[in-house]
Amino acid sequence: MTIRLRPHHLLCLLTYAGKGYSPAFTANYDGIAGRIADGEDIVIVEGPDDICAPLLSEADPHCRRDSVRERDRLAASALTPLLPGPVQSGARLALDPPRLTQMRQAFAANTIRAACSGCEWHTLCSTISANGYAGTRV
Q1: Is the pLDDT score of 59 beyond 90?
Q2: Are strands 42-44 and 92-93 parallel, antiparallel or unpaired?
């Protein structure tokens, strides 16, 4: 099976440590993180992805907002030089340990975080990064 991810979630998973919007969201994310850690392939999608799934039943899920689409655009632009091809809809990739390390180094150096500006999780992610990604699930 393949995990469907929108571009900015490639950044989020670098610091995911089991916190989220709701228990259902966190349980879903834990499952996805485990699959990524086990080497399952990822396909990039436009719009809501497998991580968004538990939020889509809300009246106005933030996953569909223009601000989140802009976050995806910024993340895709920042990550493309680090990955084997353009980060665009339909692109497939695997996040092996060397690639995750490279992405985390760039995240810690603040060179791929333009998409994180204004995110409610910014402080938590910064703290996790500053602490060497201890406790992350991927």
Answers
A1: no
A2: antiparallel
